[in-house]
Amino acid sequence: MDEHERQQLPGIIDDLASEGPRTEFAADRFKRIMQKVGPTVGSVFQRVAVDVMSETAKKLLGGL
To answer: How far apart are CA 61 and CA 64, in angstroms?
Structure first.
């Protein structure tokens, strides 16, 4: 994950937590970032993020 993605991650998680027009975009970006960080770090991020995600985001991300 590069510095730009690190800075954007809090906003992405905020967008995943709310039902809005940016939820789908945030889900796509979250998937791409999780692929970059690898399975160990990615699974930790996913477990934390799933607690705050909206139902729409969970569906977009495949029900994490």
So the answer is: 6
What pTM was estimated for this model as a whole? 0.75
CA 22 to chain centre: 12
SS in 3 state form for 27-62? HHHHHHHHHHHCHHHHHHHHHHHHCCCCHHHHHHCC
Number of domains into which the chain is organized: 1
Could you report the per-residue pLDDT of 12-59, keeping only the tens digit for each? 989 988 888 999 999 999 888 888 888 888 788 777 777 888 888 888
Report d(CA 36, CA 22) in Å as an integer: 21
The span from the CA of 37 to the CA of 52, in Å, is: 20
Q: Which residues span the domain enclosing 30?
A: 3-60
